[in-house]
Amino acid sequence: MKKRGLDTDSIGNFSEAIHNLKVIGPVLQKRRQEMGYTQESFAEELDISYSTIKYLEQGRRAPSLAMLLKIARLLKFQLKLESK
After folding, report:
1. Per-residue confidence at 11, pLDDT binned at 50, 70, 90?
2. 7 FRET partner, CA 20 to 30 A, in 25, 37, 41, 46?
3. How buried is residue 10: exposed, middle or buried, by Cβ count under 10 Å (0-12/13-18/19+)?
4. How far is CA 56 from CA 31, 46, 65, 72, 82, in A?
5. What are the phi and psi torsion angles at 7 (to 5°)?
6. Cβ–Cβ under 8 Å, residues 45 and 38
7. Cα–Cα nearest to 63, from 42, 82, 83
8. How many CB atoms lie within 10 A of CB 57?
9. Residue 56, number of CB atoms within 10 A of its CB
10. Inter-CA distances, 64 with 7, 9, 34, 51, Å
């Protein structure tokens, strides 16, 4: 649905994605800690910066698919893709 030039379906999906970032961050942090990683050691294992881990856990950054796959492997998460 379009309203004032905005695609409200996209806005809804965007809002959902932002909400998911806020939910995913604490889950990543908890799992990382359970597996004995500090933010620094986790970042080193993933070959990314410490600040990226910090922003992911705060829900301020979305991981790329490649990064998400690396994180899932390291934390032993199973990813599931669904189509709506």
Report:
1. very low
2. 25
3. exposed
4. 13, 13, 13, 13, 22
5. -90, 105
6. no
7. 42
8. 19
9. 25
10. 24, 22, 23, 15
Tell me which residue has tokens 């800690």: 33
DSSP string, 9-65: HHHHHHHHHHHHHHHHHHHHHHHHHHTT--HHHHHHHHTS-HHHHHHHHHTSSPPPH
Find where tokens 């705060």 sit: 58
Q: Quote the tokens at residue 29.
A: 């942090």
Q: Retrieve residue 50's tokens.
A: 């410490």
Token reading at 18: 């932002």
Confidence of residue 5 (pLDDT cuts 50, 70, 90): very low
Could you tell me the two tokens for 8?
Answer: 């409200």
What are 54-67's pLDDT values in tens digits? 999 998 888 888 89
